[in-house]
Amino acid sequence: MNLRSSHQSHHASCRKRVLIVNCFFDDSRLPARRTTKFPQAMGPVFLAGAFNIECCEVRLYNEVDSGPLVNEEALEWPDMLVLTGLTNTFDRMLHLTAYARTKNPSIIVVAGGPTIRALPVLAQRYFDYCCLGDIEELCEVVSDAWGQAFVAEDMLPRYDLAYWMRRMGYAETTRYCNFRCSFCSLTGEGRSYQTYPLEYMRKQVLALGKRKHVLFIDNNFYGSDRAHFLARMDLIAELREAGYLENWGALVTSDFFHKDDTLTLARRLGCELVFCGVESFDTEWLMGAHKTQNTNVPQVKLISKSLEAGIVLVYGLMLDLAHRTIADLRREIEFITGTPEITLPSFVTLPVPLLGTPLFAEFAAKDAFLPGIKLRDMDGSTLVLKTVDPLNEAVAFLREMLSLRGYRGRVIKHSCQFLKMYRSRLTKMQLMFSLTNAALLCAYSLATSPTQLAAPSAKGRRRTHVSTTEVLDGVYTPAFRVDSRYEHFFKPTMVTDEAGKLTKEMIDSGLLKNVTLQQQSQVALA
User: Any idea which fold 1-161+369-403+443-495 has?
Assistant: First the structure.
């Protein structure tokens, strides 16, 4: 069984209570509720399918949509707490574990996701079960803890519990990716691209019920198996004919756009929007990131080709201040905002050297990390790496770029020209979605969290955007009294020490495969 457990098996008894939480740290360091953030997290929904509905009462909580979980009654309720989240949410998992064990010392805590797979040895110190595999591993955990009777016969997403899903439906038809970008956690984990049986795809869409919009949240919807892709297209045609979906979108890579007939087929079958990792318009940077699939066709041509086919392409932009100068990045921003033939990026982010990735190994080997880096700060809005330009200049630039301050006039002009250029090719909904990018770029917090104006003030907690000096989130202070045994659960997990070297905790965490022997010996001698 590919899991790590320090928990003894429980005998089957009454109906069990399960709470599954998607852990999240908000960039604002405030308890914001990102109710309109898109796409939303769906991990808990798929995990919930592991439990037999007759023997288990399952509840979900999504910290992206609902803000930090601090309700004492909710944390006292479950017999099992299942935690998942992005790589930087390890500390948030510890907070919730401390709360739950204070309220119920016999609770079983299960943790999984990329942060647990990256830090398997460290995670074993804190959680009863550390899942290092895919979501199906939760079935093994449930069987080991309570018995096979508590495991669902057929693991299907529990859409009925996804209170945050609203109008958009979500499904997954494949797993992982056939490319190996240096900054991607999938590359670090060495996972191979997998296709799902068509019947599983059908069951998901049917379970969603009849919906106008469905987003396929595969890591790479197109993939390396064209025959399977075409079979999925046939199934989409069948499901559309039956009224189960009208329009759809997907997460793809740039090879999706290489064949004209792929775009034509997808649009004919209702595809209106795709997310694609454009990342940069600089070919040299793309080659350095091993994102060679993005160099086959010029990025502007790729995006405009998709738009002309009637499919909106949504993408993000990486501001790599560790490899590129501010002047170079400004030229790129000016180029994008001056090119109305393409959509604006939906977000800008710093490259994140995720634990276990080739990018992390590269920077660790070069001693490129800043001192005193916290795992929580590997979020794309906080500097954790040494910069080409002076750090104070990099911080000032980052603050500007996170809301495109100084470029808003260009953004408005671009939006007007884009609307004029594509209003006859795109639907009203597509145009509205495309123009929403301007709001996401210039006013992200308000666009994704309409309740933000009523949220607690950030006065006195101005962000530094440098992990070494960045303020901690309020959630690092317990929301209610917890057992003193768990005091250290509220201390941040450190990636580097005051000298910028990997901490002993990181070296001993199970991350050794990507750390040089020299660094290991330096830590051992410290």
Answer: Rossmann fold (3.40.50)
